TrEMBL record, chains A, B:
InterPro entries: FAD-bd_OxRdtase, FAD/NAD-bd_sf, FAD/NAD-binding_dom, FAD/NAD-linked_Rdtase_dimer_sf, Pyr_nucl-diS_OxRdtase_dimer, Rhodanese-like_dom, Rhodanese-like_dom_sf
Lineage: Bacteria, Pseudomonadati, Thermodesulfobacteriota, Syntrophobacteria, Syntrophobacterales
Keyword annotations of the record: FAD, Flavoprotein, Oxidoreductase, Redox-active center
Cofactor: FAD
Chain ranges of the Rhodanese domain: 482-573
This protein's name: FAD-dependent pyridine nucleotide-disulphide oxidoreductase
């Protein structure tokens, strides 16, 4: 039952975890890890922080928490695992149960026999197929060697302008890394119409984009790169795009990754249309003696019920333990993912779990979202700060499908997102989220915490008693349209509303919510009413009052002035502080 | 079906939520709230922060997030809810469906008719039955009026020494409030043998106690207060305890609260032996026309399956919405609690959910715990800090029963605790927690996050491959015992171990884990072996190696040197930095 000889191909994240877990459970196993690279067992997700300077020495990404470098020698001495670096796996002979490997130093080839084989081959960056992509100034930052190369060029002062292709996670992290500490003039070109297009909905993405722009990063959406050429000007490169030309000394291509599964495919193992290795819940491939995990496999998405390619270093670690347990004769499963994500971009944290609204709609859910803006702890507690949290739910079943948010305090935000993520495998309904038990004390939560408030708001929307309109639709139908048939009913205090009344004139009506019942006659009955407060809470209250008065068509601007401003909409000159 | 006339007794937390939710759903309802106090709708949990000065104006505790004071006028204008303050409910006539109330200003009594009645009577502090308890310098801080009184006395410089009776949440918060900003010499007397005895296990409680002592608070455990008398000395009071006498200018009694249920009991409604109002999941009392919620009811504990009295402002808010929905003809339930708790004590956050080990054992679970000490984010990320997290699980079923922890970064800690809490209603197993999907990026999580690591460690303990010993047992059997048959095997680096080797001599053997296999012969085979590293991770690795070498009885000191030091054990003079 127990594996005697185990070969692990790949020694970055999953491989070492498999090997060490197996050796702890089953010390008599003979475990060898091979990797074509010199560097092994590193935290690839830390690369942007190495480039930014937050992590000063690249060795920190390759060290244990007690500052021991995870070298081949370390694995041998501390873990009893043999490691062969600069050794490439060429092919698998499943009948003979051998792996053909080549020592890249000596050029010698040999066959490594195995009882069980583990594929930890990871992913590789997608490559642009455009002229100039092979120039030395055009690089990815997917591995340690290229990260060191980038940082060296920067430190030598060779980079004044950088272009990042792709506004996904790596692209956004790199934009911060280059511009924040190094002061490099940084432009991000993205083919989609928003940043972070896979994980975020448009509304929050716009807030993230605004923050990046405030930090000096140029964001160019709906734009594709056509060619890169060396030039003789002040910058090393000229990048031709669908919209024009951009000068740069450095181009970082971060347009996603794809599973590295050549070995598996050539060995006849089942792979997905996208090229990921297909495994069962025990993480066995179609050959039960061959396991696979980490960035080279596809996993089940527990919200959609469909397979998904979701490469994350954290999954690799947990999958590695599952494989190690199974190799040792135990029984462990990896059941799937809910798709949690987090990122720090300058002073903003962004986090999400489950699926965004656009994915939910594509998947056929009758999905709706609720956006809530609320303090991240008791509103009277000194360190409180606004959090923007969106919940996505299915109208018919009231099932929670996902959540996403932004906040300055990333721990406060990820804490909420992780709590929602923890429920998602159990297919929670909105009422479950409404009653999620957040540990309450004023320094850490609100008495009615934002996660509960978001669920309540979503329930009200699904029940039809809160009729929301997104900031984007408000922009289109009110701000841009300049139509006379639309009026914004601002139910905040007069001091906050005054500059808007001055600017918009009759189209902006200020009636504080607590006076609305008395002043109902002032509200026009022949206009489209956009009701607005600072966060969306008082305007909901007003909506109820309007309905009682027979004004049943008014809509509530989700997230209120806070969301509009965070999105870069509604910025007036000479405006008073509206942090009410 | 829908209630026309609704009377709400109590206007602090639950009452206002019920009233406002009902009016939003069903504006034609006639809702009146009565409260015997002048102050209504305040955040009672914020009182310690008002006293400490973190919240400067008591009005902030009575205001909305947009700085409107929640006065009776506010409820009338903004919410359509009538409020009668200084109005005491005297009795309920369930047959006539009336509440007898007395206006405390005029002394006039009248009967308020109701279709539905809501009991939001809250809790009241337990009172000591000892001589002197009625002296004006002996107070509780359960309501705004007494909080204002305390702060006034302090601000006048009348308080140099304070005695707090009870080291529960309020007692600990008040200890910080009095000593941190005001510099008051503060002593806490607690009858139990630890601080926070209901929510924390002894190990973490000891760390909290040490932190409070480092901040200058005197903690006296296993001590009871016998009498309080006024004296003629420098301090106003002399407090006689089971252990001696303590001088103080101010005594704060914080020995817990009990449900205020006189009205309910006298009206013949079912109450628990402890005096809490008994309700169903819709929060109806034994009279279906009378609802109750908040601090006066008992709720189902979803981990033990038993009723529990668990007063928390956050529950009151969520229960208020449930009652409001039901009163409006909807259907909503409150299914129970998992017992989440959080508190800030000086620079330390403490949080817990589910049940602690001692409760689990009392409830008949075959419970075990795992204590893990790990960075709260990627260990290479600059702002990382150690978190101490304990998971409690049942050996037979492997069900997760609870979790608790301490950390400097309270948002990072409560984020983990809330995520575990979110799973608890679904009766998760350790393997579910091991695979909990924490949104990973280096600024906010570890690739193998501490919640996953804690579950893994618990699994290893239940599987018998990690044999833990608590810091307290290590203290008893090694540090205090001074027995020659016990040896501590320190598997850290020599620099860290040296001061301990120097102090303990032959009883402290240093063999770094990565050299253990080679140096196995040095490990004595006739001694009781306590294996130790900084956190418990490398010592677990060493445990596996020792077992392979036939040393199967060695035990692993949980939490390692980090936990021992945090508990105030193992403090040597002239010791080098051991932050490895």
């Amino acid at each position: 039952m127990n594996a005697k000889r185990v070969v692990v191909i790949g020694a970055v994240a999953l491989g070492p975890k498999v090997a060490c877990r197996l050796k702890r459970l089953h010390p008599e196993s003979d475990v060898v890890m091979v990797d074509q690279d010199e560097y092994i067992s590193y935290g690839g997700c830390g690369i942007p922080y190495f480039i930014s300077g937050d992590v000063s020495d690249v060795k920190e990404l390759m060290s244990t928490s007690y500052h021991m470098e995870r070298t081949p020698r370390f694995f041998e001495d501390a873990k009893g695992v043999r490691v062969r670096t600069r050794t490439r796996a060429l092919s698998i002979d499943r009948k003979a149960k051998t792996v053909r490997v080549k020592d890249l130093r000596s050029g010698l080839e040999e066959d490594l026999p195995y009882d069980r084989l583990v594929l930890a081959t990871g992913s590789e960056p997608n490559r642009l197929s455009i002229p100039g992509v092979d120039l030395p100034e055009v690089i990815g930052v997917s591995n340690i060697a290229s990260a060191i190369a980038v940082k060296e060029r920067i430190a030598k002062g060779q980079v004044n302008k950088a272009l990042i292709i792709g506004a996904g996670a790596i692209g956004c992290e790199m934009a911060e890394a280059l511009s924040d500490l190094w002061g490099i003039e940084t432009t991000v070109v993205e083919i989609a119409d928003q940043v972070l297009p896979i994980v975020l909905d448009r509304g929050l993405a716009r807030m993230v984009q605004k923050h990046m722009e405030e930090k000096g990063v140029s964001i160019r959406l709906r734009e594709t790169v056509k060619a890169i050429r060396r030039n003789g000007g002040t910058s090393a490169l000229t990048v031709a795009t669908s919209q024009g030309e951009i000068e740069a000394d450095l181009v970082i291509a971060s347009i996603g990754v794809r599973p590295k599964s050549n070995l598996a495919r050539e060995a006849g193992l089942v792979t997905s249309p996208r090229g990921a290795v297909v495994v069962n819940r025990r993480l066995q491939t179609s050959d039960p003696d061959i396991y696979a995990g980490g960035d080279c496999i596809e996993v089940l998405h527990l919200v959609t019920g469909k397979p998904v390619f979701f490469p994350q270093g954290s999954l690799a670690n947990r999958q590695g333990r599952v494989i190690g347990t199974n190799l040792a004769g135990g029984f462990a499963t990896f059941n799937g993912v809910v798709g949690s994500f987090s990122i720090k971009i300058f002073d903003l944290a962004v986090a999400s779990t489950g699926i965004p609204l656009h994915t939910a709609l594509n998947e056929g859910f009758d999905a709706a979202r609720a956006l809530v803006v609320q303090a991240d702890r008791a509103h009277f507690y000194p360190t409180q700060d606004l959090m923007y949290l969106e919940v996505i739910a299915d109208r018919k079943t009231r099932r929670v499908l996902g959540a996403q948010g932004i906040a300055r305090n990333g721990d406060a935000l990820t804490g909420r997102i992780n709590a929602i993520a923890a429920m998602l495998p159990y297919r929670p309904l909105l009422e479950d989220l409404a009653n999620m038990e957040v540990a309450y004390s004023p320094p850490f939560a609100s008495a009615l915490d934002i996660v509960n408030a978001a669920a309540n708001t979503a329930e009200n929307i699904l029940d039809g008693i809160n009729r929301p309109v997104d900031p984007e639709e408000f922009e289109k139908c009110f701000l841009d349209a300049q139509a006379d048939d639309a009026v914004c009913l601002d139910v905040r205090g007069p001091a906050n509303a005054a500059p808007f009344v001055a600017y918009f004139g009759e189209r902006w009506l200020n009636v504080p919510q607590e006076t609305l019942k008395q002043r109902m006659a002032e509200v026009p009955r022949d206009k489209r009413l956009f009701v607005l407060c600072n966060s969306g809470a008082r305007s909901y209250e007003a909506l109820r009052q309007l309905e009682t008065a027979g004004l049943c068509e008014a809509v509530n601007v989700q997230g209120g002035v806070a969301a509009l401003k965070k999105s870069g909409l509604l910025e007036l000159d000479h405006e008073e502080d509206t942090t009410e």
